[in-house]
Amino acid sequence: GENVEQHPSTLSVQEGDSAVIKCTYSDSASNYFPWYKQELGKGPQLIIDIRSNVGEKKDQRIAVTLNKTAKHFSLHITETQPEDSAVYFCAASKRGADKLIFGTGTRLQVFP
Amino acid sequence: NAGVTQTPKFQVLKTGQSMTLQCAQDMNHNSMYWYRQDPGMGLRLIYYSASEGTTDKGEVPNGYNVSRLNKREFSLRLESAAPSQTSVYFCATGQNSYEQYFGPGTRLTVT
Lengths: 112, 111
Prior knowledge:
By secondary structure, chain A is mainly β. Chain A has strands at 4-7, 10-14, 19-25, 32-38, 45-51, 56-59, 62-67, 72-77, 86-92, 101-102, 106-111. The mean pLDDT of chain A is 95.
């Protein structure tokens, strides 16, 4: 079955710096890759997603890139702010699948 | 439009007690999911329902049962709670195996 690996497990950056979180997937048929942000005490919230027919997608300070050949995708956060501190999860899915396969999460801390 | 709601928000049980966690959605999604998240851990799928009338086991189904009452509601039941079931439980809904939307969670402690 599909497996999604996520790195790093923790990431600390200075406010204003960039942060990058990477995920790899095993099933070449996967075609949907969402990213979730989980703030303390809350449920995960979808922040951006990408489908396999595009290589990059941006939304203000966040972007996701996809390399289908290498089977990996990444979340990029620029000009980080303290409110970006949270746990981030990547996931993968494919047409006809009943569920998302989640990575293990990355705890991002942004220091002022 | 409340999205995904879960009740209760907090619960403390004694070992052996039973309870049902409720989840309801107003997003008209076909699929619903139950996850558990232990401290410092990722999301583990307990059960899911791809459509009304169907349920399937996820990664960690032992000790749990589910009911898809109708399109809107999906409940998770613990028949005999154990300390190992202390966790935060999240319900989620989705459409066609793509976007999933999560509820606020139920924090369960079993003593």
